[in-house]
Amino acid sequence: MLAESKQLKQTTAAEMDREQVICAVLEEVRPNLKRDGGDCQLVAIDGTKIMVKLTGACVLCKLSAATLEGIQARLIEKLGEFVRLIPVAGAPTAPY
């Protein structure tokens, strides 16, 4: 039972570290997006799926797909694992 509790704490710590890396990557790109009148908000993390909401000028931008690909590549580089960045429309503002 103690081993299960210890493993649960390790998993939770690893998930928190992973979430911090994801938030840090989004914070890195945020100034560039804001300079162009847009933004990107973290909505949810579900395993290897990372859901984000584009706002402002990014919503209608023809280059938003390229922006998302760049962010995804940066996330893969920082996390050391394959993740998929998924744009979500109309999602509520997340607590992240």
TrEMBL record:
<feature type="domain" description="NIF system FeS cluster assembly NifU C-terminal">
    <location>
        <begin position="24"/>
        <end position="84"/>
    </location>
</feature>
<protein>
    <submittedName>
        <fullName>NifU family protein</fullName>
    </submittedName>
</protein>
<dbReference type="InterPro" id="IPR034904">
    <property type="entry name" value="FSCA_dom_sf"/>
</dbReference>
<dbReference type="Pfam" id="PF01106">
    <property type="entry name" value="NifU"/>
</dbReference>
<dbReference type="InterPro" id="IPR001075">
    <property type="entry name" value="NIF_FeS_clus_asmbl_NifU_C"/>
</dbReference>
<comment type="similarity">
    <text>Belongs to the NifU family.</text>
</comment>
